[in-house]
Amino acid sequence: MRICFLADAGAVNTRSWVDHLADVLGHEVHVVSVNRDGVLSPSVRLHRIGSTAGTVDAAGKLDLLRSVRPIRRIVEELRPDLVVGYRVASYGYLGARSGFHPLVVTAQGQHIVYPRRSLPKRYFASVAMRTADLLHAWAPHMARRMVELGADPKKVFVCPRGIDVGRFAARPAGGGDEFTVIATRGLHRGYRIDLLVRAVALARREVPGITALIAGDGEAAAELRALAADLGVGDRVRFEGHVPYDALPGLLGRSAVYVSPVPSDGVSASLLEAMACGAFPVVRDIEANRHWVTDGANGFLVRGDDAEAYARAIAAAAKDAALRSRAALENRRVVEERGDIATNMRRIEAAYFEVAAAA
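The structure assignment produced for this chain is given below.
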């Protein structure tokens, strides 16, 4: 099948998705990206339009509107079997304006439209969902939000992309006095990684050997480093910067606890990677995480922006090795059953074949 993806080529989620379709499932995959290059598989053909200023959202909706005609031309030249627009209010809208069918529009985050009250984005999302032949949500809470925004429930297909469970293998038992916690999300202000830094400063009273690994980069990196120094934990918080994907399993493998205070999510690949490697999840209590973590059983769910609550959860995990061991086994099972990219991409591929055949 020839598949044309309209998506941000620089996003990690785009890369794992299109690379799997091309390299594992053997499809001819093209990615059309506005303003962004990306490191994709050699099997994937990248078509970049516009400048290299940033993502569609960063560059503004004017660039989005300017992209309609060149995207329509590229799609007409490729004559694909299927067009996929990844992110409803941006590339999904471009897919709708391309005039091509069958069109699959896939959501990224839990809100679908963000900011939620943005009238232009609500309009773009409405056009995309009304035009699409199939609407793809990673999780049930995202599907419900689509329907709330006016999507036809009969068009909605729910399936997470998943992760490579073979690459992210369970870790061996740790040893020594060091107790390592890890965060592998971007260092963006809205992600609230500062709560982890503050939690480390609080938790060291009860967990003297605590060390935090923060893997990622973003506009808040300098602020977080300064915060760690101000709180006296500059030697306890190690900023790894951008970590190549192949190096992530190693970092997760030597970490006892995975922490994510991110306020909203679709399905977090970072969480699934940590669970597959046996790192005990201490994550924000949001619906996206409740699909994977049961509080007190295979992880801890923490409400709100409460650094002390994160510190208490980390300390509780540190003191209960038996709980962490049980959770590691359960989390591996959960990810293998529901979050394996090999299985889930076969389901997604089947949905693509079905909508293409119907068209």
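Interim note for the steering committee: The two ends are 14 Å apart (CA to CA). The chain has 15 helices and 13 strands.
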